[in-house]
Amino acid sequence: MNQLVKIKDRFIGEGHRCYIIAEMSGNHAQDFDNAVKIIHLAKESGADAIKIQTYTPDTITLDSDNEYFRVKGGTWKDANLYKLYGEAYTPWEWQVKLKEEADKIGIHIFSTPFDKTAVDFLEDLGMEFYKIASFELVDIPLIKYVASKGKPIIMSTGMGSLGEIEDAVNAVKSQGNDNLCLLKCSSAYPAVPDDMNLKTMQNIAEIFSVPVGLSDHSLGSIGAVTAVAMGAQIIEKHFCISRSIPNPDASFSMEPAEFKQMVEDIRTVERAIGRVSYEISEQEENSRVFRKSIFIAENVRKGEVFDQKNLRVVRPGDGLKPKYYEQILGKRATKDIDKGTPLSWNMVE
Asked: Cβ of 23: how many Cβ atoms within 10 Å?
């Protein structure tokens, strides 16, 4: 069994409910009221946590028009990185109030820092756990700095080779921090099912013996629900008020009704997975009567031999179990028995 990680009042790992994260990202569209509303809607939709991101355009990239700083394809094709991050970032002056709001309504809040200044800011804010984004999986100095704070870390592994994941895990452990969860992630926006390879998530759990989950950028909920059926203990999904509100993340984010349905489906899957049990449920007990058993198929007189004509294995289940059928063939009846009577031992010589 993989280790358990405690995040505030929740344990993450086998035997515990899946931890469901609503990723705000840039879905606030630079409107503080939207950000607050997203926190409340995430709580109402069943999320365990809301995640924000802590960076500015200057802390994550350079203000340059050089071709290297232009997105080549995908959702943000031709966008300049500095301008894109300027549209998507969550102003730092909001984050104190957003944490207060989340704490007030009882939803966990945490953040992804993208440089050391962001970590220092979040430490001053009293952030209780952290996220490492897929794109920062190779930023070993940042990972070490985050891990040095001794707090739980949820780390995405999108685009990571096994060696890169191992380097990042070792960076966390080098700081004496074992409070680590790893998320399988397909870092495409949106991700397509053919590229998700959810079996990799199970392999990550086997190799690193940590709680695992899915950072899901695919459309809809089938990837997330399937991942839970395969053992995911964390699901992270981008969350918005409405995809009609323009922002860099809207196209692959879930609206509240969709997110709520996903949460309900995940909870249903968890109940269905259940535990190893051969106990008969109350519902099954009521169905046992419709199993097969041994019945008298023709009128039988006392002393008559039971054979394949007067003895049948049929539904319902009120007679002797079918496993005794061959044992009873050739024996004689102890009394007259009418057709349609369930066979019992006192009828057999």
From this structure: 27
**Amino acid at the residue 291:** R
Q: Which residues contact 9 (CB under 8 A, 6 or more apart)?
A: none
Q: Give the domains, in start order, of the chain with CATH numbers.
A: 5-273 (3.20.20.70), 282-347 (3.90.1210.10)
For 35, left (φ over 0), alpha (ψ -120 to 50), or beta? alpha
> Cα separation of 77 and 82, whole Å?
14
Question: Helix, strand, or coil here: 7?
Answer: strand
> What pLDDT does residue 113 have?
98
Q: Give the tens place of pLDDT for each residue, 86-108.
A: 999 999 999 999 999 999 999 99
32-44 and 256-273 helices cross at what angle (nearest 10)? Answer: 30
Phi, psi of 52 (to 5 degrees): -115, 180
The CA-atom distances, in angstroms, between 257 and each of 241, 246, 253 are 10, 19, 12
Residues in the chain: 349
Q: What are phi and psi of 229, to 5 degrees?
A: -65, -25
Q: Which of 35, 22, 16, 11 is nearest to 221 (CA)?
A: 22
Give me 135's structure tokens. 């794109």
Whole-angstrom distance, CA of residue 287 vs CA of residue 302 = 33
CB 138 within 8 A of CB 131: no
pTM across the whole model: 0.88
Residue 342 backbone class (left: φ over 0; alpha: ψ -120 to 50; beta: rest): beta
- 336 strand-pairing partners: none
